[in-house]
């Protein structure tokens, strides 16, 4: 009798374990859980796309109580926008992606499979997008000024207006300018703590066209995250060049030599043709007999 009870218990246990495994198998764990953040627009992303199950995201400051994001409960998406809930930009966050039944579908599981993210600190880890800037050249062509627009971010201030990188990083925000003559491959760099960047005769030659790229620079970050995305290239207008500056002495000398050569060849050909014509005329006259008197 005791052996029969043991066999029954073992069979029941095996059935329960088998059933549990089958249910768990219907909810595969999320893979490749990672953060994607640009200008504090922060998404948690993962794979694969679900078919008969859903995902729920929980997040928290590391070591604190986890919370749900209301937009990412039993979702069929593979990303969750956490921009508005990661309010402490200098805190380190972690998140879990749970694989759960579809909405209004019950399950006997008491704990669902989940995958944890790596830690994420918005202040240190968000990528800084490319800045926009304008170029102004002084009337005397001796100074070029770049007016950089601090990139807007996906956060709002008390007036419900978008904040900028300057609002967040303050004096830590600098700009790295890479520039060179439009007609040269050589490059120079200049760092500026201001969004208004002046280049004078110590940096540029008056009246010459220069091309510029600008990117944000945060020196307090780790080396691989200090620089933001490179801006699009913009070039300043150059001064109106004289004929000799535009084409260069070598090109002009070569052109003059070609013209002189063509003239000399034309003269030689003309002379030769004239001589042949004269000889032909002379030979014709000698072959005609004299008239009798």
From TrEMBL:
TM region positions: 247-273
Keyword flag Transcription: no
Pfam families: Interfer-bind, Tissue_fac
Span of domain Interferon/interleukin receptor: 126-236
Keywords recorded for this protein, A-Z: Blood coagulation, Disulfide bond, Glycoprotein, Hemostasis, Lipoprotein, Membrane, Palmitate, Signal, Transmembrane, Transmembrane helix
Signal peptide start and end residues: 1-25
UniProt membrane topology term: Single-pass type I membrane protein
One Gene Ontology biological process: blood coagulation
Domain Fibronectin type-III: from-to ranges: 11-102
Keyword Lipid biosynthesis: no
MF terms (GO), sorted A to Z: cytokine receptor activity
Subcellular location(s) per record: Membrane
Role noted for this protein: Initiates blood coagulation by forming a complex with circulating factor VII or VIIa. The [TF:VIIa] complex activates factors IX or X by specific limited proteolysis. TF plays a role in normal hemostasis by initiating the cell-surface assembly and propagation of the coagulation protease cascade.
Quaternary structure note: Interacts with HSPE; the interaction, inhibited by heparin, promotes the generation of activated factor X and activates coagulation in the presence of activated factor VII.
Family designation: Belongs to the tissue factor family.
Official protein name in the record: Tissue factor
Native organism: Oncorhynchus kisutch
């Amino acid at each position: 009798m005791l052996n029969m009870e043991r066999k029954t218990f073992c069979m029941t246990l095996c059935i329960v374990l088998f059933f549990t495994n089958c249910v768990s198998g219907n909810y595969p764990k999320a893979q490749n859980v990672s953060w994607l953040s640009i200008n504090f627009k922060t998404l948690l992303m993962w794979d694969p796309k679900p078919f008969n199950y859903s995902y729920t995201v929980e997040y928290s400051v590391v070591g604190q109580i986890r919370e749900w994001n209301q937009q990412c409960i039993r979702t069929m998406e593979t990303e969750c926008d956490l921009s508005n809930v990661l309010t402490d930009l200098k805190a380190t966050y972690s998140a879990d992606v749970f694989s759960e039944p579809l909405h209004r579908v019950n399950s006997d599981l008491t704990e669902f499979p989940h995958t944890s993210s790596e830690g994420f600190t918005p202040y240190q880890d968000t990528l800084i997008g490319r800045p926009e800037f304008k170029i102004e050249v002084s009337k005397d062509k001796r100074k070029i000024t770049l007016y950089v627009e601090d990139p807007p971010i996906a956060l709002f201030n008390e007036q419900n207006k978008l904040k900028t990188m300057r609002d967040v990083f303050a004096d830590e925000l600098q700009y790295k300018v890479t520039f060179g003559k439009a007609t040269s491959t050589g490059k120079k760099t200049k760092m500026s703590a201001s969004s208004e960047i002046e280049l004078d005769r110590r940096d540029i030659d008056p009246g010459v066209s220069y091309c510029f790229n600008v990117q944000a620079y945060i020196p307090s970050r780790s080396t691989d995250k200090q620089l933001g995305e490179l801006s699009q290239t913009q070039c300043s207008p150059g001064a109106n060049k004289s004929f000799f500056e535009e084409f260069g002495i070598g090109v002009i000398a070569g052109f003059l030599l070609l013209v002189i050569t063509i003239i000399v060849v034309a003269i030689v050909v003309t002379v030769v043709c004239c001589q042949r014509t004269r000889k032909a005329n002379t030979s014709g006259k000698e072959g005609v007999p004299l008239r009798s008197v």
